[in-house]
Design goal:
single chain; alpha+beta; five-stranded parallel sheet
């Protein structure tokens, strides 16, 4: 069985190994000058390759039943066993799985070494231009010519984290040009796991601050919270909580021009508990100016913005200000307002939302329209939250597709 794999990323490499282990003659085509480039930058260069705290709630897709059935076939334990079988030691940090040496390069190295042992042919700096089904075989056209294969696995990823060419631009659906027009139905594309761009002028004043708390989208159907350390930037909000919210914000921005987002500096306290704390504080140090009274509650660079939003004057003595006004102002620290009107672009995103609908493939990741063509990884309409979930989808989809294609 001659199998072509288009794309030498995470799902493509494990698909190649899975197929080659079953005796297939495998060729990997990679347009970059080396395979696995994205693997090297995941987890801040440490490669968070999966997570033991696993559930369907960590994924966005229109068919969670489909992906959970696939994870039952090849899940987190199978990923651990797979990497153990090719020589990689893993470590568990509160459920987050990393290579024990904490180097993403080790993950790529063991994958490369395994490809070499299995005699998988890897062709780098070779972009695939088209894939055509002809009778019972496929013609894969590249810039170097045409080759014929029995089956093809498309694992070419997406444009998240990729810089556009100088003077040009990248399109998230460019991979669809590999196939005849209108071959597949897709979900809308947008950046995901990326920072939120906000229109408030005071973002510049807050730039550089890091604060632990909770980001909150007040929604008409459900309130959505993400807790952790937020990084304030000159354009808006970054950090893992912002990344986790970006998928939902992107969905909402397709229907409206902006999305309100609030930051809670005291997520461990209710409004009433914070007010009680403020009242005690007034009893003890009410003689201080407003600036000194709020010092230590939040980063000092936040206070000028806080006073401007609340109308309090920093120099006024707290005892001279109506207590209800101070308490009302303090509650703003639980709903510090931002207005998100855009997401950071694809080149600054970790993943891309949207893609080919799961209804286009069967349980073996084979196209329902083109027999012998398999689709994996990021080009499918599945994206996960931060924490190794996207790589787990890559391992699962790639391994199962490689196994099925080689049978």
């Amino acid at each position: 069985m001659r199998i072509a794999i288009v794309g030498g990323g995470a799902s493509g490499l494990i698909a190649a190994i899975s197929a080659a282990r079953n005796g297939a003659d495998v060729t990997v085509f990679e347009k970059n000058d080396r395979i696995g480039k994205k693997i090297l930058v995941t987890g801040n260069g440490k490669c968070n390759l999966s997570n033991t705290a696993f559930s369907a709630s960590h994924y966005y897709t229109k068919d969670r039943d489909y992906i959970m059935s696939r994870f039952e076939e090849f899940g987190v334990k199978d990923t651990i066993d797979f990497f153990s079988s090719i020589g990689l030691l893993l470590t568990d940090r509160d459920g987050y799985l990393y290579p024990r040496c904490e180097q993403a390069s080790a993950v790529l190295d063991v994958l490369r070494f395994t490809l070499e042992r299995l005699s998988v042919r890897v062709v780098i700096s070779c972009a695939v231009r088209s894939i055509r089904k002809e009778a019972e075989s496929f013609t894969v056209s590249t810039e170097h010519g045409n080759e014929t294969f029995d089956r093809v696995i498309v694992s070419c990823g997406n444009i998240a984290g990729v810089n556009p060419p100088k003077g040009g631009k990248l399109s998230p659906d460019s991979f669809l040009s590999l196939f005849p027009t209108d071959t597949f139905q897709t979900a809308p594309f947008s950046p995901a796991l990326t920072a939120l761009r906000c229109r408030e002028a005071y973002c510049k004043a807050l730039s550089g601050i890091r604060a632990k708390g909770s980001l909150h989208i007040p929604d008409e159907k459900e309130d959505i919270f993400e807790r952790g350390e937020v990084q304030f930037t000159d354009y808006g909000l970054s950090g893992i909580p912002a990344f986790q919210l970006s998928r939902k914000v992107g969905d909402l921005l397709r229907r409206r021009s902006f999305v309100p987002v609030c930051f809670d500096f005291f997520p461990e306290l209710t409004d009433n508990e914070l007010i009680a704390h403020i009242m005690d504080r007034l009893d003890n140090i009410g003689e201080l100016s407003a600036e000194r009274f709020f010092t230590g509650m939040v980063h000092k660079k936040i206070l000028p913005v806080f006073f401007k939003l609340t109308g309090l004057r920093s120099q006024d003595r707290c005892d001279d200000i109506d207590r209800s006004r101070i308490c009302k102002a303090a509650v703003l620290l639980k709903r510090f307002p931002f207005t998100c009107n855009a997401l950071n672009p694809y080149q600054n995103a970790q993943v891309c939302a949207g893609g080919i609908l799961l209804s286009e493939i069967n349980e073996h990741f084979e196209s329902r329209r083109i027999k012998g063509l398999y689709l994996t990884g990021e080009i499918l309409d599945v994206d996960g939250k931060c924490g190794g979930y996207n790589l787990q989808w890559a391992w699962t989809s790639g391994f199962l597709a490689g196994r099925s294609a080689s049978c």
